Amino acid sequence: MNFLDPANSGLLIAFASAVAVFSAILVVSWPYLFRSNLETRMRQVANERERLRVRERTKMEAAKKTSLRAEPRKLFKDIVDRFNLAKQAEDGEVVRMLRRAGYRGQNPVFAYVAFRVIGPIVLFAAAALYIFLILHLNKPFFFKLAIAIAFALLGYYSPAIFVKNKITKRQKSLRRAWPDALDLMLICVEAGMSIEAAFRKVSEEIGSQSVELAEELSLTTAELSYLQDRRRAYDNLGDRTGLDGVKAVVTSLIQSEKYGTSLGQALRVLSQENRDMRMAEAEKRAAGLPPKLTVPMILFFLPVLFAVIITPAAIQAVRAAHGG
Questions:
Q1: Full-prediction pTM beyond 0.70?
Q2: How far apart are CA 85 and CA 77, in angstroms?
Q3: Range of the domain at 235
Q4: Could you report the per-residue pLDDT of 98-114, keeping only the tens digit for each?
Q5: What are the angstrom distances between the C-alpha of 27 and each of 13, 37, 161?
Q6: For this UniProt entry, which segments traverse the membrane (predicted)?
Q7: 185, 41 in Cβ contact below 8 A?
Q8: How far apart are CA 166 and CA 158, in angstroms?
Q9: Is residue 189 one of the residues assigned to a domain?
């Protein structure tokens, strides 16, 4: 084909013009023909986030209506008002201690303060009644009185001892399950989930291992959706647990929120540190086992061993003596 021919050149110009017009129309209509799903996906993410917030707020409100906002029992409240113990009921240290034991709201605080008043009186009266009227102990009066006072002191300190034992058991459960929870949280964060969704997912999965940790993470998820200051929700998690490992993770979460640092790398390092700490604690307990077994071995194992070794010789000696 001769492109220099005027007829052919006109045909080429017409074809090029048609291609140019078609390309221009395609470029202009491309966004309308093939819409990007980015906007749709972002809208779905926003809707999912808002749905999570509404659900967690609903759970938080239901929890407050059922437990946290429940009015204290009239007996406990009357005792606190009668002895002017409102300052002790509002003491931040008492509230913090009860939260670490798993007791939240005003009712446990009033009950704790009331038991510290009722306990000494009841135990002192019961001990005095038993010692002076029933037992008829042949001892001096002041000795009997000292025994009754000792029971009164036991009644005063018994609520604190009970709460501290609950804190110890609760922290033990949290400490054992926390490294596994960090691994699950790391997987969720690296998969692209938000921190609220990660907390919610981990709380659902870790419940079979530690109910206490699942409860704390669920409460943190609700606070992240409910509280305006997210840092306060993280601080509350560290304050309720009282564990150094949890506080370190809380610090990393706060720094990630404030400075935009990588949360996945921080969680990976902290997870390994918590596992190393748990292994070191297990090795420490294993190293302390031999000294603890010394006394049981002396009392129970060695006498049996000596009996097994000496009894045949003693039997032979007795037979020889009788035969002689």
A1: no
A2: 10
A3: 173-285
A4: 888 888 878 888 888 88
A5: 21, 18, 77
A6: 12-34, 109-135, 141-163, 293-315
A7: no
A8: 12
A9: yes
